[in-house]
């Protein structure tokens, strides 16, 4: 009687899995190298800046001081002494990578960046501009109670018209203060805040608040009346 033939089950081909794993490992190595390169750049920058006692060494002789973004009422962010515009450089708008943004920090933001963040965190922040935006906003945003108190006292008055203040900045400030105060801002709430914080004499030029359906609509009316208000209260 013939012995049955022993059949062996072929092992699965893991070549593709190995190739994928190797590719992933190479990608991870490349990413680590990029992060390390960025971290080295930041460390070198910190070392160079650390050679002076001042966090912002003076510019070269006969060189005008780098301009700073002033306190911006349109966004209500404490931006004075945060960025030096001259150093911003350029970045690719397609991927929003800000390779030189760390060189633009000044004042509180520079102290926070240099003294608080680790090299890994600093390198990570340079990967996308939105990370800078969200983290800086979280770090320097006003306390909600303070923002709410400012919102309650905020007014756009006839005197503001005489002083040449921009009503669009007022509108943006009202919205920003409401957001910083933690209010839920749907379209109707924004419209009512914008309207109610106007001087009653300015409100007379506008339609009743409840007739507006969008912020864009009431903004257009307010901006449109700016020249009228200026001519009426020019003295």
Question: How would you summarize what this structure contains?
Answer:
With 235 residues, this protein is mainly alpha-helical. It folds into two domains: 66-141, no CATH class; 144-232.
Which structural class best describes the helix and strand composition?
mainly alpha
Q: What's the Cα radius of gyration?
A: 28 Å
Order of helices and strands: HHHHHHHHHH
Describe the main β-sheet briefly.
none
Strand content: under 5%
Give the helix proportion (percent range). Answer: 40-55%
β-strand number: 0
The mean pLDDT is 71
Shape: elongated
Q: Please work out how many helical segments DSSP would assign.
A: 10
Q: How far is the N terminus from the C terminus?
A: 122 Å
| Domain count | 2
Unreliable stretches (pLDDT < 50, length at least 5) are 50-93
Biased composition (Pro residues): 55-70
Organism: Phaeomoniella chlamydospora (Phaeoacremonium chlamydosporum)
Region (Disordered): 47-75
Protein name: Putative reverse
Q: Can you describe this structure?
A:
With 235 residues, the chain is an all-alpha fold. It folds into two domains: 66-141, no CATH class; 144-232. The chain is 53% helix and 0% strand. It has ten helices and no strands. The protein starts with 14 loop residues before the first helix and ends with a helix. It comes from Phaeomoniella chlamydospora (Phaeoacremonium chlamydosporum). Residues 47-75 are annotated as: Disordered. This is Putative reverse. Residues 55-70 have a biased composition (Pro residues).
